[in-house]
Write the structure tokens for this entry.
Amino acid sequence: MQIGGALEWSIWSVFAAFEVGTIARVGRLVGAGDRAGARRVARLSLGMAIAIGLVLALATPLVLAALPLVATRVSDEAMSEARGYLGVTIAASPIVFVAATATATLQAGGDTRTPLLIGVGANIIHIALNRVLILGAFGIVPAMGARGAGISTAVTFAIEAVLATMALTSRARPVSLRAEGETSGTIREEASQLVRIGGPAFLERVLYHLGFMTYALIVTRLGDAAMAANQSLISVESICFLSADGFGVAAAALVAQKLGADKPDQARSAAWIAARYAVITLTSFGIGALLLRDVILPIFSDDPAVFVIGRSAMPVLAIAQPFMAMGVVLAQALRGAGKTRQALGVSLMGAVLVRLAATWLFTIVLGFGLVGVWLGSTTDWLVRAAILATLFRRRPGEPTRTEPEPLVQ
């Protein structure tokens, strides 16, 4: 999972960059009261999701063939499990992208409760399927290991895609695929807007994930026990990261809507409020994880070596949380404002330059092992939080309806 999960996340994140444009454009049009325009963007985005997902699904054999080039110091067993997982999940990319786009559209329209309910229901099924497909059950279903996890993931995304798309067919929603009405805009104009906003976001994610994969390769140099410990820590931190991303989604949607309504001061306030709540939440999570590390880590592995390595790195994970919260939320707010070029610059500085240099220094040069890996990522989040906070303190000029107004200059 350290190999397959990292590669899967990078691929999906890069090719789903157009969702940044979806949130920015749908949110701005909803704020401006242009429901027909929001519908047009939603339909276009779903079409792009299917097209890009199909291209990626067809490339599944190439992804599997490239695995030995990505991870050269892993066991044959680990490589086989990674192939089994990715062979299913990458092929399911059209379903994944439709689910993500439909969810982003609902959120951009101000509806975060429906995606929450869909997520809760789908993941209850996900947990049950994981138990059955990964470990086997009742002497009927064979244990499939990581491949079973891949099948469970694909089924879960399919459920989310169907339910979220159905939710968008309601005419009562701010964004409805079935709404009536004509606007002066065209599909070509909206496609141009999505490319203009999504292009820098795509490049940002390419650079970020090239850096992330290099970062992951540094972890593979530490051996299987360190990789297992790192995967455990990532699983713990994912609760924190996804919580910050939740506040970031709220910030992006509100920023886009307030700018669409010509209220830039309220847009900035929404970003700072979301960042403050995220810092408080993630700091609490980090402290809790640190205090309960002797209880949490054995859940993931009973290997004493894995436990010792993971325990030593947990304090660094806790320290990183407030910086990660600030960095994630303010970056999402920038993207919601359509300022993807600035987000690109921040990501290039932090995730690529700072993270790789710091991780190499702490892990390889100073020999801190997995602790060095987490010190490198924490340094990245600290730098990004500082840059973004500085950008958001600048006061924007007067907004206009025709040109997306920056939160920062």
